[in-house]
Amino acid sequence: xxxxxxxxxxxxxxxxxxxxxxxxxxxxxxxxxxxxxxxxxxxxxxxxxxxxxxxxxxxxxxxxxxxx
Length: 68
Fold this sequence. Notes:
The chain is 62% helix and 12% strand. By secondary structure, it is mostly helical. Strand 1 and strand 2 form a beta hairpin. Helix 1 crosses helix 2.
């Protein structure tokens, strides 16, 4: 596992990139849920969005192990 990534000579913590990717995925999933009206099934939208973000972050970190 790499903890730092070298992007054009700048060392960036890998967690920062994972957070950005998870945020983008969360935004996409949120838009899809809003478009199909699935938020009417959710009790507390902000809590649900946070839990979704944490779950997606876990998925991104897990799959980052398989990257070269």
